[in-house]
Fold this sequence. Notes:
Blueprint: H1 3-15, H2 17-20, E1 27-28, E2 52-57, H3 61-70, E3 76-82, H4 86-98, E4 105-107, H5 114-118, E5 125-128, H6 135-144, E6 148-151, H7 159-172, E7 176-178, H8 186-197, E8 203-211, H9 215-218, H10 230-234, H11 242-251, E9 260-267, H12 272-280, E10 297-303, E11 308-314, E12 326-329, E13 332-335, E14 340-343, H13 359-362, H14 365-370, H15 382-396, H16 404-411, H17 413-422, E15 428-429
Parallel strand pairs: 1-15, 2-3, 2-5, 3-4, 5-6, 6-7, 8-11
Antiparallel strand pairs: 8-12, 9-10, 9-15, 10-11, 12-13, 13-14
Amino acid sequence: MSRTSNRRDFLRRSAVAGVGLAFGPRLTAAAVPPPPAPEYAAGFAAPAIERVRIGFVGVGLQGGSHVQNLLRIPGVEIAAICDIDESRAREVASWVAAADRPAPELYTRGETDFKRLCARDDIDLVFNSTPWKWHVPVCVEAMASDKHVAVEVPAAYTVDGCWQLVEAAERNRRHCVMMENCCYGRREMMILRMVRAGLLGEILHAEGAYIHDLRAIKFSDQNEGLWRLDHSIGRNGNLYPTHGIGPLAQCLDIGRGDRFESLVSMSSNARGLKLYAERNLAPGDPRIRDYALGDMNTSLIRTANGRTIVLQHDTTSPRPYSRINLIQGTGGTVTGYPDRIYVEGRSEGHDWQQLDDYRDEFEHPLWTELERDAEGAGHGGMDYLEDYRLVECLRAGTATDMDVYDAADWSVICELSEISVAAGSRPVEFPDFTRGAWKVRRPLEA
């Protein structure tokens, strides 16, 4: 039996563990021992690309935003656009022409027309901003066609999908970068510099979240509303972990000196989506139904080095946006929403300080350099910075800031949380996508 089929069979059995109690105290998400870590894990860097030729697959709201950013970044050519909505593809292509660039070729013959785009020999990077179910198929096809890939979040939402990305990147020696924009937030990059400078001492604990009222978006008849609600019908866990966990993982050197070891997850009752549907939809609308997704999911993660993490997901409650973004160490604590910090020996009494008090000392140079260029870009400018850094790394031939192991480590929380919830909140072990290389990989430079 192949390793892939073994994994899938194991996950089917894991999903019912909470009912049958067929397992011991801890579930595992790795069906068979993987082979030793390949050379790729050491910090893969591909040959430099003077001009990065990009093919876009999916140019909805977020994909279109990336196109606009990349048209402002030197050394980029938008060579092709693929989307099932031909009118949207033509609209985005018109932006390229308006910028006095060669018109990109369009691929609009249906859901699998991305294969024709990937088959071209004049594309260096496939940029994947499709609905979640297409993330893995498009990425695997692109890497098999000798293209680097950038993919929106989460990169995958199953354990098997995460392994497919890792194995495809290693096998084809191509970058697979998940575009986690929150790692490029001004606050997050400043905090990473604080951690690297030792301001907070030894880091012991972190908390993150994706708390965002998406009820109106999920019930919309356009854009993400066309597919995102479907995931709430049969899935119950943390469906969108990477915004919360990504910046924390970088501060904790996950995959580069530490690793996620085990997870326990639980969900509250599911109320928000049905109540919203009853209040806002016409009687008889099929979306007035029960949903599996609990309103608040809370996952507890322990790392191999003994650090702890609280990670939450809530997209169905009337609650203001928050990613929490807390880092706690032996010398102090910093947190967001609102931004504040306490540093032993520098803060007075037991009172928080404003994070801005430390900006002159710890502002990240990328923000100092690119703040003006990033004005008007999505999510407060962080989207521009992540696009800029991806292009800069490809053109320089260096390792990217985030790699396929980060994409897998952060995305796999989706299904691990679902497995734990279904099994009565029993612990689930994380796969080691680096196959032990996390012990020797170098931390991400701030």
